[in-house]
Fold this sequence. Notes:
heterodimer; A: alpha/beta; 5-stranded parallel beta sheet; 17 strands; 29% helix; B: alpha/beta; 9-stranded mixed beta sheet; two-stranded antiparallel ribbon; 6 helices; 30% strand
Amino acid sequence: MAEILVLVDHADGAVRKPALELLTLARRIGEPSAVVLGAGEAAASIAATAGEYGAATVYVADGAEFTEQLVVPKVDALTQLAKEKGAAAVLVTSSGEGKEIAARVALRLGSGLITDAVELEAGENGPVATQSVFAASYQVRSTVTHGVPVITVKPNSAAPEASSAAGTVENVTVSFTGNAAKVVARTPRVSTGRPELTESAIVVSGGRGVGAAEGFAVVEKLADSLGAAVGASRAAVDAGWYPHSNQVGQTGKQVSPQLYVAAGISGAIQHRAGMQTSKTIVAVNKDAEAPIFDLVDYGVVGDLFEVLPQLTDEIGAR
Amino acid sequence: MTLKIAVCVKYVPDATGDRGFADDLTVDRDEVDGLLSELDEYAVEQALRISEESDDAEVTVVTVGPDDAKDALRKALSMGADKAVHVNDEDIHGSDVMATSAILAKALEKTGFDLVVCGMASTDGTMGVLPALLAERLSLPQVTLLSELSVEDGLVKGRRDGDAATELLEAPLPAIVSVTDQSGEARYPSFKGIMAAKKKPVQELDLDDLDIDADEVGLAGAWTLVDAVAARPARTKGTIVTDEGDGGKQLAAFLATQKFI
């Protein structure tokens, strides 16, 4: 069966959820193999998890290069494996780094590249990827016509399904090509204890209507009652009320959760581009004319400082 | 020695317009007005700042696009760039990102540069991979997705805010960088800048000038195929209620019916 290489994104020694989604999707188009790079001592447990989610083989490579240089060492490893193993496709998570890795791998393999797929299925001419474009106003279906398909998939595009496989570990020695930017220092993001924005099944976001940094407390309380991640609109981020790492929108994170709650967000096109593929959308806004209400499944015209705490209390009471 | 800075910019359909596709499933450029991609304004800004901090520097904006793409170059020139290069050839229509990066790489080689500055992504395709592809094609370090950028002593230094960590990066020139919308507000063109831009040189190049065969680019040379494009079905009109003291409770009831709580 065709071998599908899946780059396993990991942080803090654990597999990140989008990688499990990729392994799940990979089973639709072939037999998944996982690629685990620069995980150090955590490689064994990461490999085991990959096996539980359907990886027949887990290729493991370690080296200081993976953390001391930007992007290129991972490109070296993935390209080398794709060639050696005759992979039928390469799947990578759609993150800033993931897309850059995929692009360079595709170029080295002489392959077409599809980024930000939200759906993946087998087709007569190889994998068919669906993308959601122009602020999710269009769905585009594409195939790669040249070389080994290299496809990046957005988080939350599939529910991870466990499927026990051999998970046989094969250690790999990578020939590094160099020419990479040097990582001089790395500061891991301090965990808030909340789910990662792009991976969370529920996202609660605040916008201009929140009014101040302190105003985000009601947004955070609602998020915590739902086990949700906290997002912010560009207006709120530009005002300095919430960190850029939490920005949802065209120039921030693209999220696609089961439930998206927009509080005090008017719904400018730039914001919609980042959340319009959410399955269920709820909004609370004082302005009945706000464009966000055109998108919602349920909207409340009202003051978020009254509606959100009441909702949080209701959830707590259930 | 003049520090040569090249900025790659893209002319894109206005995101606030009703964007769509033409019959050949490429982006319909007639449907809405085009403009300089907003995210490229940050790249122009950073190039100008580096230029201003340098004793001797020159900023060239480079684009690949149809006739109207000159508007994007004019905007960058009116912000303060010194000159422009426009790669324009009807055979380029329908090029995918692989072909576009090949064309840009050749144009950059012809123009010459010490530093290439790009935006983090275009606002139409939003792939965010072109800077990485340029680095691969030109065998240069990529220092990308930067929220801060500086050039000193032949080194480019930057800060990259990733999902899991913030990284400080460094690479020797020549190098390819891309900047995010956090890198610093882009300046508005002054009236003087707009008038001066009219006199600045714009070099026209076609595929022959870059020694690229027509069949390597355009729809014919694309390595991916768009099979189908469909407008997303309009969302069914949701329920909208006005809060009269129990808006939060009503919302909770809705979330319960959807099994979120």
